[in-house]
Amino acid sequence: MAVAAQGVGARATEQAWEMPAERPLVSRLVRPWRQNPVGAIGLLIVVLFFAVGIFGPYLAPYDPRALDARARFLGPEWDHPFGTTSLGQDMFSRIMQGARLSLTFSAAVFFFGFIPGTALGIASGYFGRWVDYLIQRSGEAWTALPQLPILLTVVAAVGPGLKAVVIVVAISALFGGSRLLRAVALVEKHKEYIVAARATGANEAHILWRHILPNIMPYILVGASSVFALAIVAEAVLSFLGLGAQPGTPGWGIDLSAAIQGGRASSYPHLIIFPGFAISIVVLGFNLLGDTLRDILDPRLRGATGPRR
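-> structure tokens emitted (309 positions)
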């Protein structure tokens, strides 16, 4: 009996279940990006964009506004990697300085448009009734109006420059974000875990902060990446049309406009290749990052960028 008891005890010890060792924090942070290499590329592009937007003007080899008549229309070379403009300005330095303009504009649209729009959308979908009616009817009234005449009216009121463009684009982002988050919040508030939270006596503020917001965070992150991408394109397009930053300001859209209006694009393609590539690659980076964050944070929304199962 003693021998049998010892054998049973040994087998029980061998079959004892143990908690698996927890992975290091760095490994847990790196693993999703290793499984999503496309998203890692997007993250790298976005990080570089922010770094160049913040520190680029201090790292630029030349003054982006400096004129040099002896260096007009130079092609890419060692001293000027991206060539020079019709005024002898270094294109590489202007691209780096233009990143700050795009970053400043998109950040302003994000903070003054998308974030308030997110709050309004969640409140609209969660509380409903007159709150929902007021917010959504205001958004419909704004989208029903033609945006270009509104922009021209704001320009006439506050003067030309990016201030007017930020106001109009931020309002558009505000109502666009509220529509997206309204639909998501409306679905979430009817789920069982919200009913259970109310049954335990949780108040509305607690439910919004601890339950609704964390569960719709993937949609917020995807929306934020889209807002940055759309704001960069909007700034470039409006500056190209002469409605954004003033001529002479280092900016990707302004440089494209100067190259095309001067009729030099066919003879000196570097004048449009590098600003156009900067816009395209940054917008692509934000889109890839948004899709990957969506896949990582909410597997129910997994798309083509997620790892194969």
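Residues 121 and 178 are 4 Å apart (CA to CA).
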